[in-house]
Amino acid sequence: MTSPLEQKKIKITGPSVVTANRTWDGAVVYRTAQKGWSTELADSAVVSTSDDARALLAEANADDVGAVGPYIAPVELKDGGKVKPGNLREQIRAKGVTIDLQVPA
Amino acid sequence: MPLVKQGRLTTDLFVHVAEGAELPGDGAVLVTAERFLADPEALLRRSGKLGVIWPNNRNVDDLVPYLDRLASIALVFPTFRDGRAYSQARLLRERHGYDGELRATGQILRDQFVFMTRAGFDAFEVKKDADAAAFAETMKRYSVFYQPTGDGRVTALNRRMQLRHSESASQ
Amino acid sequence: MYAYDELDRTLINERVSEFRDQVKRRLSGELTEDEFKILRLQNGVYLQLHAYMFRVAIPYGTLSSKQLRRFAHVARRYDRGYGHFTTRQNIQFNWIKLAELPDALADLAEVGIHAMQTSGNNMRNVTSDQWAGVAPGEIEDPRIWSELIRQHTTLHPEFSFLPRKFKIAITASEHDRAAIKIHDIGLRLHKNADGETGFEVLVGGGLGRTPFIAKTIKPFVHGRDVLSYIEAILRVYNQYGRRDNIYKARIKILVHELGIEKFAKEVDEEWKQMGDSELRLDHAAIEEVRSRFSYPPYEKLPHMPDELKQAAHDPLFERWRKNSVAPHKVQGYSIVTLSLKPVGGPPGDATAEQMDALADLADKYSFGEIRVGHEQNLALPHVAKRDLPALFKALDRLGLATPNVNLVTDIIACPGLDYCSLANARSIPIAQELTRRFANHDTADLIGRLHINISGCINACGHHHVGHIGILGVEKNGEEFYQITIGGRADENAQMGTLIGPAVPYAEVADVIEDIVEAYLALRDRPEELFVDTVKRLGVEPFRERVYATR
Questions:
Q1: Distance between CA C24 and CA A24 in Å, rounded?
Q2: Percent of chain C with pLDDT over 70
Q3: Distances from the Cα of C360 to the Cα of C69, C170, C386, C392, angstroms
Q4: Which chains touch B (3 or more CB pairs under 8 A)?
Q5: What is the model's pLDDT at position B25?
Q6: Could you give the residue ranges of the DSSP H alpha helices within chain A?
Q7: Which of B90, C277, C446, C495 is 20 to 30 A from C463 via CA?
Q8: Measured between beta carbons, which residues in chain C are less than 8 angstroms from residue B156?
Q9: C459-495 pLDDT per residue, tens
Q10: Quick one: pLDDT at residue C19?
Q11: Where are the domains of chain C?
Q12: In 3-state terms, what secondary structure has residue C133?
């Protein structure tokens, strides 16, 4: 997965959202259409043009107190409008680690 | 931009003169290294205090012949994560014995005050008013220092050895 | 153990209160993230995929039971009940809330633990041999020097904003367990002809996208001059290290671009100018620090106690003892390595329950002391041999007696894409699958010493370059692929591994590793020839042929 830290010019090729980590606790959050943040991907504002993505990111960046390091992440739109993470990295961020956490004792 | 000097908020008497800009007839000025090195003697003869803004990628050895005649040297922090000027400051103070004003300019936040003071800075062009106002309080933050610099603070190691010495002397 | 005094404690508390203020200013918006980032990094706080990650220092890998219990407390109270031991004698917590971090730091400070400079562009945790002070044949305890350097470089006013991070490792044994050749500065303690203590100083080692083995800059720097010599190196680096490109900012690039001779000349000139500074350590100063290290009151014990003779009939015990128990410098005692690599588990993880229980065992069997090694395992450094059978039973119940130390399943792995915002691919699930493939300890014994190191990206936190087998995760068209190298090593003969062939997809990695191991078993000229020696003797080609013939 190309790290979003290397994301330079903004050009999207499919439906996308803006995601970040919440400042006070680091939780994964998504930018909503109501100019806020939500921990639910389902609440995110989905954009489909590069201009809209740029605008949504600029708005997210302006909220430096609320969330850290916003970037544009790809999503997939399923039938019925359900939003799914668009790559493995985002899947891990949305759903947690892919490993069994407990050390078997 | 607020200036903190010797621990207090003060009015900055120096005017920063940009490269190529006209030099005021009198009054204290801070000039660029290029302007200074082009004709140091002429500038030093001028009435009014003279200071130099010294970039952090230039060897401070070039300043050594003029140290006793400079009223201020301003070392530059282009961003606060660029720490080259800390070495320059210590070299000027501790190796070359410079005792004029040593000024920190650039991105200066309160979180660097202790480091800067320990490296020999005594004047700070602080970015934020709140940070400038918090100078005295911030300087009280630390009372223990592990390494010796030219600031004269006693290191933890020396304090321990003094303590040990006085303990054994009193027995 | 090093005992903190009032001054050390005061400094840590002052640091905590400074950070509390910084966090407060960040949460109120007084500090922007751009400003705060450096400040939080200097306290070991990263932002990872899911949350903030908090890295805590375990200087030179020495921990008390009280400190380990406090880690358990932090894991439970502020995190999700576990911690992750890293390759640099640190522990990481993966789910810390920024707003609670000052409290976590304050709790740790009470037991003399801090997170100062565990990240950021400054001097990182000074690491050392995890067997320091107990290894037979050691010249002297390198931790005295580690502590002197730790203090000197903590909150150093000149070197807290270096071009890039800076890591020092120290060894005092012939066999290098501290991987000094892959550090910015490696120090090898030895004695000169007059019997005086000093160091061979190596500089410019490191992994990442441009790996280098450190080069010797000075064969002998007297102990009394070690601080001034390090200061001279840092001053040259601070001024001339590149700051235009983060990937070229480490000292290894400066050393490489200048050449070691020119770099050494710069350092020497600076060092000469520093002259007889206050940094020179006199005998009293060294002894002051030495006096603060305490050693256990060892008993006079037999070399072969009855308990050990009896337990020799238990094959499980014997297998574990042969694998995990090493000789101690004091007769009747052993060093016991505790594998944090259970079959199917994430390498280096320990739960709060394990930490608490292990702290109890350390009190009972190891004078309250625990060690942390760069292989992401723990050790109990002073176990009486008579106690080994009882300790084994207790460790086994905790899942800490997997007899795989230095074997194929003793895998070093970075957190990878499951946690890390820099990663391109996952590391931990690859490690877990490999431990399942080689779960049979008889097979692992047959294979012998074999280090597999896995990194999820080119930054190489999993030290893949120096694994006997190295696995590096890369991304190809949005999929996880892995490059595999063989023949690397991290010890006194450190070298980088060689790429064996094209990268393979996630699902094939474990098959390829099995093929490599099978090839080795077929190619080695005798059972004692280690994997890495077979690769050295034959080169990569015969392995490449076998692995890729059918692919």
A1: 10
A2: 100
A3: 9, 29, 18, 14
A4: C
A5: 87
A6: 50-62, 88-95
A7: C446
A8: 7-8, 11, 151
A9: 999 999 999 999 999 999 999 999 999 999 999 999 9
A10: 98
A11: 6-109, 142-290, 306-398, 412-548
A12: coil
Q: Residue C45: which of C74, C72, C23 has the closest Cα?
A: C23
Backbone angles phi, psi at A46, to 5 degrees: -100, 125
Position B163 scores a pLDDT of 86
Q: Which chains touch A (3 or more CB pairs under 8 A)?
A: C
For C78, list phi and psi in degrees, rounded to 5: -115, -5
Three-state DSSP at C227 gives: helix
Q: How many residues does chain C have?
A: 551
**CB proximity list for B73: less than 8 A, separation 6 or greater:** B51, B52, B54, B63, B92, B98, B100, B101, B102, B103
CB C358 within 8 A of CB C46: no
The b/e string for A14-41 (b: 16+ C-beta within 10 A; e otherwise) is ebbbbbbbbbbbbbbbbbbeeeebeeeb
Domains C6-109 and C412-548 fall in the same CATH topology? no
Coarse DSSP helix, strand, coil percentages of chain A, rounded to the nearest 5 percent? 30, 30, 45
Determine, for residues C424 and A69 on separate chains, whether the beta-carbon distance falls below 8 Å. Answer: no
Q: Could you report the predicted ipTM of this complex, rounded to two decimals?
A: 0.97
Q: Which of C106, C123, C69 is nearest to C91 (CA)?
A: C69
Chain C positions with Cβ closer than 8 Å to B? 5, 7-8, 10-11, 14, 17-18, 22, 30, 35, 38-39, 121, 151-162, 235, 238-239, 243, 273, 277-279, 284-285, 288-289
Given pLDDT bands bounded at 50, 70 and 90, which one contains residue A101? low
Length of chain A: 105
Q: Are B114 and B136 in contact (CB under 8 A)?
A: no
The chain B residue lying nearest C239, using CA atoms, is B84
Q: What is the mean pLDDT of residues C309-337?
A: 98
How far apart (Å, rounded) are the C-alpha atoms in residues C36 and A68?
11
Ramachandran angles phi, psi of C402, nearest 5°: -65, 120
Q: Which CATH number fits domain C142-290: 3.10.50.40, 3.40.50.2000, 3.30.413.10, 3.30.1050.10?
A: 3.30.413.10
Using the 8-state DSSP alphabet, how is residue A32 labeled?
B
- Tell me which residue of C149, C128, C153 sits closest to C139, measured CA to CA: C128
Q: How far is CA A95 from CA A2, A18, A91, A92, A99, in A?
A: 19, 17, 6, 5, 11
Give the sheet arrangement for strand C333-338, strand by strand: C62-64, C369-372, C378-384, C333-338, C325-327
- pLDDT by residue for chain B (171 residues), tens only, comes to 899 998 999 999 999 999 989 999 899 999 999 999 999 999 999 999 999 999 999 999 999 999 999 999 999 999 999 999 999 999 999 999 999 999 999 999 999 999 999 999 999 999 999 999 999 999 999 999 999 999 999 999 999 988 888 877 765
Per-residue pLDDT reduced to its tens digit, C74-105: 999 999 999 999 999 999 999 999 999 999 99
Say yes or no for a CB contact (<8 Å) between B82 and C288.
Answer: no
Domain C6-109 classification at class level: alpha beta
* Per-residue pLDDT reduced to its tens digit, C401-437: 999 999 999 999 999 999 999 999 999 999 999 999 9
Preferred mutation among B57, B60, B64, B81 to probe C, highest tally of C CBs within 10 A = B81
Given an 8 Å threshold on Cβ–Cβ distance, is C432 in contact with A100? yes
Residue type, C407: L
Averaged over C138-144, what is the pLDDT? 97
- For residue B113, the chain C residues in CB contact (below 8 A) are none
Task: Report, at the CATH architecture level, how domain B3-140 is classified.
Answer: Alpha-Beta Barrel (3.20)
Q: Which contiguous run of DSSP H or E holds residue A70?
A: strand A67-77
CATH architecture of the domain formed by C412-548: 2-Layer Sandwich (3.30)
**What residue spans define the domains of chain A?**
12-86
